[in-house]
């Protein structure tokens, strides 16, 4: 049950209806619409009213009196790209009787622009970068990560590489959708992280609720849960704080291949570690490091325990072998 007034749900349903019938509705927008209807009882009711209106419009579209009325009553008050429709009294009365005044009034007087929302690209180099978004949300983009943001009827973020943590401003009429590797994460107001790790997508929920749609299924996460998905598998665990530890400058590893540990630490700073021996790269490693200087700390730990030796140091690159 939502605490949002019914009138606002009707307004949002009207906007969604117009968008769903506009050209080039994206998969992200479709996923956001589905999640909005599913997660909000008032939204579900308003969307049902939209369906009734759609059916009514179909029934009256070819009525002779309506056809005659259409010639004089439908007048574009703006250029076609972002116009408002004003419908004459007879048809308006029929619509009000069918679906109720608030929704009918919204639908017959206004529809949003089909013009795409502006897109803005962001990237972080060797340290995390906090980015305020136009809707009041915040995106913490991790080092060596990039994302494209579009704030419009749907607040959409495409994670191009790496990972990001989102603190989402609450706005049930405009869901916040993050896509990565063809998977989508939809939130209404929450805090969560999304990571693109090769062909795997990792989601960690810290606050609120998110709906995740993957190639292999869908899940709604609860705070503290994380999700890992690739083209063939999907799993949920209770380790969100650990997965999102990078936001606090700490990375924790438990029986992770050493090559993966190195890849994670190479995001930060200017030192780059290379493992020349594939056998060494596959060895399981457990440990905890800070993002500031973690690479050098790993090298020191490996050398001190005899797990690896430094083969060379050159131009900021440390090469390790057994």
Topology at a glance:
Layout: H1 6-20, H2 27-39, H3 41-60, H4 64-73, H5 89-99, H6 101-109, E1 119-123, E2 129-132, E3 138-141, E4 146-151, E5 155-167, E6 176-180, E7 183-187, E8 191-197, E9 200-207, E10 210-214, E11 217-221, E12 226-229, E13 234-237, H7 240-243, E14 250-257, H8 258-265, E15 272-275, H9 278-282, E16 284-290, H10 294-305, E17 309-314, E18 317-321
Parallel strand pairs: 5-6, 15-18
Antiparallel strand pairs: 1-4, 2-3, 3-5, 4-5, 5-8, 6-7, 7-10, 8-9, 9-12, 10-11, 12-13, 14-16, 17-18
Helix pairs in contact: 1-3, 1-6, 2-3, 5-6
Précis, in short:
This protein has 10 helices and 18 strands.
Keywords:
322 residues, alpha+beta, Jelly Rolls, Phage tail protein beta-alpha-beta fold, 3 domains, 13-stranded mixed sheet, 3-stranded mixed sheet, 10 helices, 33% helix, 33% strand, elongated, disordered N terminus, Fec operon regulator FecR, transmembrane, FecR
